[in-house]
Amino acid sequence: xxxxxxxEDIDFPEIDKRQIKKWVNKVIEHHSxxxxxxxxxxxxxxxxxxxxxxxxxHDYYTDVITFDYCEENNVSGxxxxxxxxxxxxxxxxxxxxxxxxxxxxxxxxxxxxxFMDKSDEDAKEMRQQEExxxxxxxxxxx
Length: 142
Known about the structure:
The chain has one domain (2-141): Collagenase (Catalytic Domain) (3-Layer(aba) Sandwich). The protein has helices spanning 17-30, 45-56, 83-92, 97-113, 120-141, and strands at residues 2-7, 34-43, 64-68, 74-82. It has 5 helices and 4 strands. It has a 4-stranded mixed beta sheet with strand order 1-2-4-3, with helices on both faces. The longest helix has 22 residues, at 120-141. The chain is an alpha/beta fold. Helix 1 crosses helix 5 and helix 3 (83-92) packs across helix 4 (97-113). It starts with a strand and ends with a helix. 53% of the residues lie in helices and 21% in strands.
């Protein structure tokens, strides 16, 4: 198992790496999966737009892009997170920045576990899973 958090072209966010790793492990285990190779890449809007254009042929900004390398029950992938978009979304949705960042961090993992968000029904399920995962995080923080 490898769990990495790195930053590209932007300052690293103020998060507790050990707590995030513990949380992600708990969420993955909750879904009866195993932790494989997971890398978070914290980046800017400019860089995530380039990733979106180069790899997905999408020409827009987003908060998170997940590349799925899962094999069998092992959850593995690269998760790009635009801290710029997380910040603007936290303001747009009237959320604390730290809470919005946690939501996006786990959103990528939920995609790797198999949850989607393209349809309204899938998006509703994704939000429920995010809330469940945030509850797990809150339990760890006590």
